[in-house]
Amino acid sequence: MNCQPKGFVLDAVAVRRGPARLLDRVSTHLPPGWCTAVVGPSGAGKSTLLRLLNRLEEPTTGRVLLDGIPVTDLDVLALRRRVGLVGQRPVLLTDRVAEDIRVGRPHLSKPHAVELLARVGLPPEFAGRATSGLSGGEAQRVCLARALALEPDVLLLDEPTSALDASNTALIADLAREHANTGGTVILASHDSTTVRETADWVLVLDHGRLVATGRPDEVDYLRARS
Amino acid sequence: MTPTNVPSWAGVAASLLLVAAAVAVVWRYKLGLTGELVLAAARAGVQLIAVGALLAVLFNRTGLPGALGWVTLVVLIAGQVAGRRGADLPRARAIATAGVALGTAPTLATLIIPGVIPTSSRVVIPVGGMIVAGAMQATGLTLRRLREDAHTAREAIEARLSLGLSARAAFAPHQRSALRTALLPAIDSTKVVGLISLPGAMTGLILAGVDPLTAIRYQIVVMYMLLAATALAALTTARLAEHTLFDHAHRLVPLTTGLET
């Protein structure tokens, strides 16, 4: 059936943990070829929404579909290789940068690893660097390169620019744009309204787990209030 | 065995003077421990008399089935004790009991079936007790370490899961470090056995008048069996914990409470 929408669809998704409602009946469509930004105050449910898409989180009620298929019907490990998540805090997993980039793809060649480093604005010599000596921004970019190594269709970026300076923020924004322009899906959770305005095609505003507004970046009051 | 080397009850009573010496120190320096010390000494006496009487009945009245029944009971108790080390892990006590049981059963069977040790309850009960103690320590250490990692390394585990790694692969580095933590004390004590202190089984045999060259044979078997019990208990515990820590969708389950210790 070709009538099913491409990309992710959230159908009345709620996530409760004990009495807390992390997400409350959120319905939306996240189409491929778009960079969709998820904005809202801390604790609004942005990270939870991203984690639903690669099944680190399960909805209490409602459904998440990818290309019309409930994600619960897909092989979860294959889904996670298609849907790369870069978390809010950079977590490095091995001693060396090149090794870290290979965690999800052990047979990645050295030239390919260097190319991934270049995409996130790091010079080739970084491949041999110890992960323990990296700054927060460098670590964040290594995490992004590690996710890109799997060549995911969907990029979930959770506050990707929080530890970066202006030029590196622009680099990551360009990378997100390029991914969307080449047909990929980007979901960007961010506090940085400038990046959102410059990068996103569509904005979802969450508050207390509820989807309170959607629109183009220039239409959303939440962003206008922060310009 | 003739109890020529064993203190008489009068001798045991005389050793109370040593308790009095400790009480004198505690009282003289106002350490506030006099009551606790007297209670501890009294408890030790009562507990050991009770265990001695129970063992006397078991040794004289029951054979191998009674001994195995006793070891089973000890395994169940040890499982409860070791399970506390993983308090907020799902089904920690059941995992710990299985860990102690699967560390103990094959080890004891390897000693009994080929006849390395006799099947009398006089031998099976103390040897079984030593195996259970070793397995319990390994199980407790493994659970404690896994519990700490499930709390502190959640982000790293989820980062690996997000890269499409299976729960087993994502948890493997933490499992390895838990197994190392559990095995190192047994390996270290095996390395230095006889050099730093004379171990329990050997000391007991020497005190009972057995020739030291005979006593060491027992000790060698004890050290080897403890290595096996430790490794099997730690591995069982780590594998079972992995199954309860992750759900069918390769997700680390939320733990009920925070890390207290």
Overview of the structural elements:
The complex is a heterodimer of chains A (227) and B (261). Chain A has 227 residues and is of the alpha/beta class. Chain A is built from eight helices and ten strands. In chain A, the strands form two sheets. A six-stranded mixed beta sheet of chain A has the order 6-7-8-3-9-10, sandwiched between helices. Chain A has a four-stranded antiparallel beta sheet with strand order 2-1-4-5, with helices on one face. The mean pLDDT of chain A is 91. With 261 residues, chain B is mostly helical. Chain B folds into two domains: 10-61, no CATH class; 63-245, no CATH class. Chain B has helices at residues 9-14, 16-28, 34-61, 64-83, 92-112, 121-152, 154-162, 167-191, 200-207, 212-245.
CA-atom Rg of chain B in angstroms: 22 Å
Order of SSEs of chain B: HHHHHHHHHH
Mean pLDDT of chain B: 91
Q: How many strands in all of chain A?
A: 10
Task: List the uncertain runs of chain B.
Answer: none
Distance between the termini of chain A: 43 Å
- What series of H and E elements makes up the topology of chain A? EEEHEEHEHHHEHEHEEH
Number of helices of chain B: 10
Helix content of chain A: 25-40%
Distinct helical segment count of chain A: 8
Beta strand count of chain B = 0
Largest sheet of chain A: 6 strands, mixed
Low-confidence stretches of chain A: none
Quick one: which chains have the greatest interface? A-B, 24 and 15 residues
End-to-end gap of chain B: 47 Å
Q: Major sheet of chain B: size, sense and barrel closure?
A: none
Helix fraction of chain B?
over 70%
Categorize the overall geometry of chain A. Answer: globular
**How many domains is the backbone of chain B divided into?**
2
